[in-house]
Design goal:
The complex is a heterotrimer of chains A (294), B (385) and C (95). Chain A contains 10 helices and 8 strands. With 294 residues, chain A is α/β, with parallel strands linked by helices. Chain A has a single domain, classed as Thiamin diphosphate (ThDP)-binding fold, Pyr/PP domains (Rossmann fold, 3-Layer(aba) Sandwich), CATH 3.40.50. Helix content of chain B is 38%, strand content 22%. The longest helix of chain B has 18 residues. In chain B, a hairpin with a 5-residue loop joins strand 5 and strand 6. Chain B folds into 2 domains: 191 residues, 3-Layer(aba) Sandwich (Rossmann fold); 110 residues, Rossmann fold, CATH 3.40.50.920. Chain C has one domain: Alpha-Beta Plaits (2-Layer Sandwich), CATH 3.30.70.20. Chain C has 3 helices and 4 strands; from the N terminus they run βαββαβα. In chain C, strand 2 and strand 3 form a beta hairpin. Chain C is globular. Classes of the chains: A alpha/beta (294), B alpha/beta (385), C alpha+beta (95). Chains A and B meet through strand 2, helix 3, helix 5 and helix 10 of A and strand 2, helix 2, helix 3, helix 5 and strand 10 of B.
Chain lengths: 294, 385, 95
């Protein structure tokens, strides 16, 4: 390479470079999802000063620690309520919840459906690797049937969640699923999500080569990417009831739901105005400080 | 700094403790609350839900106490002063997030209107049995500040103090009420805003490229970084270094956790509050707090009528515990009588501080009603002999 | 003539193979050299076929590679062969 040519990876400014290389395994797709996310930030020309990332616990939860944004690594399952408080106190912020399937749908399940019901203006990115990875590969509510995990050593037997179906039913206004093979579509979905008002959800399927794939003799991360390429079918607008996943079956990807519904703050504002008229004082937030500083 | 007039309901009111606590929160600058209904605390946030839309803030009823206890922390980082209220069972649910607030140094206020326990217990009746839980309930080593009002007026005053302590020391602060104090109605005087001292959040003035979010000031508390201003703050519950980045080394753990402890413990003299009466020259000192201190007053008067030199030591801060003062008094009296609505909690702290230099007699019961003054008088007479 | 090239930050690579697999013109291969963690890093085995599309960069989970379109058509080719310590040196010079 020419020593006079200075090129930088365009996503570097979005990363805490002093913490790279990150802890994710070779072939794990979380890094690729963050890559797509960063590119979406660039293409959408997002003002990252007003972007905050909130994550929970788990491999995907570590995303908060690697992005060079205001980022919050909270407790297991509770990224969404933390994000709720953050957004309501500071509505100017674009709040993204970036967490894993176990964190968002097991321990955090109730918070997710409540936030969707309320249509809080939160953008939820769920990296779904179908397992609890960080803690060593236990069954998640998304783990398909007949999969070997450390807590189902003879194979899973109970049904798993169909995430887009669940989130749509709970009230989300934007629901999409892509895999980390679909890097371009994923980046575009992130862009759409940034400008969508209301509870938005993107499921990002990712390999977990070290635990999920290895224990089930499904090869490594690259094998899984090839698998995604082979079995994914893009069906934008597909009914979410028909997009359930299985161990080796078809993966339906695409944008499934994109609808309009007044978000929580608008609903609150309208009700307050209706009831209180000009006695209503909006959430106090000023440019230079906050409601409590000098 | 003076209180924001928008939140101050100046005047003389007839309020119960729960309502007075809400007014204290508003006067103290709270503009966000997330709550979950639980008797006997619910009125605090019900009033807040009525008041705050006309003051300028938000109340949201969350789906459970787990959500409420962390939503307030999100709101704090979003720039608001925030609090939640609960009672025993909800308090137990909040424990993980109390630890998160301590670890991330998030200033916030938790109000626990104590009721009979354990478990569902006595939802509508008093106890003071969460006193050890408030200090030790979450896992790991950390310190808290806990205040015990004994009247609706103190519910107002001490809630303001709680917010001020939270900002000063960047830790979770607790207002430990009980069902009687919460539901008793008394005169509450709310002064004009210029007479209410409020501690503002100490945001850093250092620019983002030089600022270390967990680098403490001389008082061992770090300045708070603002969110949304390009500081790219990272806040994590993992053990972290001065940059806020996760760091697993034992020396980093030791440095961090000791500082979290020391910022309270070494500043205890500035935090500890108590009320003494005729302790000087006393033979017996009655230690009590909350509603029990009101009953103890009657008992002390009766005992003094019987000719005993009885002093009163009322804990206003239960944590940090006023161990220095108790140890000092222990050298001057025959015995302490500790009266509380539980089967022995703060009495253990008294025993620890007294270290055998005087007798300690415990008068308690499992809750459900306040003490009979006669039981406290009996204890005083016993140890006075 | 190559229309583009790639920048590889060898020390970040974990040899997952995504870039090699998904390069549309099969420019890359994993080399026999390895970085400090022992991973075999990619190199441009067919640099002349690089279009600078940056698909490798989009796939990389470790931010260890990215492609760029070459602004100067007369520029000399990127080095071929396994990445050496000198290769990573160049990568850091260019930052």
């Amino acid at each position: 390479m020419s020593a006079t040519l200075t090129v930088h990876n365009p996503v570097d400014p979005f990363l805490r470079m002093d913490r790279i290389p990150h802890i994710w395994c070779p072939g794990c797709g979380i890094g690729t999802s963050v890559n797509s996310f960063s590119r979406a930030l660039i293409d959408a020309k997002i003002d990252t000063r007003n972007l905050a990332i909130v994550s929970g616990i788990g491999c995907t939860g570590r995303v908060a620690g690697y992005v060079n944004l205001d980022s919050f690594h909270t407790t297991h399952g509770r990224a969404i309520p933390f994000a709720t408080g953050l957004k309501l106190a500071n509505p100017k912020l674009n709040v993204v919840v970036y967490s894993g399937d176990g964190d968002l749908f097991a321990i955090g399940g109730n918070h997710l459906i409540q936030a969707a019901r309320r249509n809080l203006d939160l953008k939820v990115v769920c990296v779904n690797n179908l397992i609890y990875a960080m803690t060593g590969g236990q069954t998640a509510p998304t783990t398909p049937g007949s999969v070997i995990t450390s807590t189902n050593p003879y194979g899973t037997y109970d049904a798993s969640f169909n995430l887009p179906y669940l989130v749509e039913a709970a009230g989300a206004v934007y629901v999409a699923r892509w895999t980390v093979f679909h890097v371009r579509q994923l980046a575009r979905a992130f862009q759409e999500m940034f400008s969508k008002k209301g509870f938005s959800f993107i499921e990002v399927l990712s390999p977990c080569p070290t635990l999920y794939q290895r224990r089930n003799k499904m090869g490594d991360g690259l094998d899984t990417m090839k698998f995604y390429k082979q079995v994914s079918k893009v069906r934008n607008g597909a009914p979410t009831s028909e997009v359930a996943l299985s161990k080796a079956g078809e993966i339906v990807v695409g944008k499934f739901v994109d609808r309009q519904r007044a978000d929580y703050r608008d609903l609150m504002h309208d009700k307050m105005i209706e009831s209180l008229g000009d006695r209503y004082v909006e959430t106090y937030f000023e440019e230079e400080g906050c409601s409590c500083s000098n | 700094m003076h209180a924001d007039p928008a939140g101050v309901l100046t005047g003389t009111h007839f309020l119960d403790g729960d309502h007075a606590c809400c007014e204290g929160a508003l006067a103290g600058g709270a503009r966000f609350s997330a709550g979950y209904p639980i008797t006997p605390s619910t009125e605090v946030v019900e009033r807040f839900a009525v008041r705050v839309p006309t003051v300028g803030g938000t109340f949201i009823q969350m789906e459970d106490e787990l959500a409420a206890s962390i939503a307030i922390q999100g709101a704090v980082w979003g720039g608001a002063k925030a609090f939640t209220v609960t009672s025993g069972p909800g308090f137990s649910l909040m424990m993980e997030h109390i630890g998160l607030a301590a670890m991330t140094e998030t200033p916030c206020v938790f109000v626990d209107v104590q009721r009979g326990g354990p478990s569902t217990g006595l939802p509508t009746l008093p106890a003071q049995a969460d006193m050890m839980q408030v200090k030790w309930g979450s896992h790991g080593d950390y310190e808290v500040i806990a205040l015990c009002p004994n009247s609706p007026q103190e519910c107002f005053d001490l809630t303001i103090k709680a917010f001020n302590f939270a900002e000063q020391y960047r830790c979770p602060v607790f207002v430990m009420m009980d069902e009687v104090v919460g539901h008793m109605t008394e005169k509450v005087v709310i002064p004009p805003p210029e007479q209410i001292e409020v501690t503002p959040r100490r945001y850093t003035t250092i620019p983002p490229d030089k600022f270390l979010p967990y680098e403490p000031r001389e008082d061992m508390v770090p300045d708070m970084p603002p969110v949304g201003k390009g500081y790219n703050v990272h806040v994590t519950g993992l053990t972290h270094d001065e940059r806020g980045y996760p760091n697993m080394k034992p020396d980093v753990q030791d440095r961090l956790v000791r500082r979290l402890q020391n910022k309270i413990v070494k500043n205890a003299d500035k935090i500890v509050m108590f009320e003494e009466d005729q302790v000087e020259g006393a033979d017996v000192v009655v230690v009590s707090y909350g509603i029990t201190s009101r009953v103890a007053r009657r008992a002390i008067d009766a005992a003094r009528g019987n000719g005993v030199k009885v002093g009163s030591f009322r804990l206003i801060t239960a944590w940090p515990f006023p161990e220095k003062k108790i140890a000092e008094i222990a050298g001057q009296v025959k015995a302490f009588v500790v009266a509380e609505l539980n089967l022995g909690q703060m009495v253990r702290e008294v025993e620890r501080a007294v270290a055998g230099k005087a007798g300690v007699k415990f008068v308690g019961h499992a809750g459900g009603t306040v003490h009979h003054p006669e039981d406290i008088v009996k204890a005083i007479m016993e140890v006075a002999r | 003539m190559a229309k583009g090239s790639v920048q590889i930050v060898a020390e970040r690579c974990k040899a997952c193979g995504f870039c090699v697999e998904f390069c549309p013109t099969k420019v890359l291969a994993l080399s026999s050299a390895f970085n400090a963690k022992g991973y075999h890093t990619p190199y441009m085995v067919h640099p002349e076929k690089c279009s600078g599309c940056d698909l490798c960069g989009m796939y990389c989970p470790d931010f260890a590679i990215f492609g760029y379109k070459d602004p100067e058509p007369t520029r000399q080719q990127a080095p071929v062969g396994p990445l050496t310590a000198a290769g990573s040196q160049e990568a850091s010079d260019a930052r």
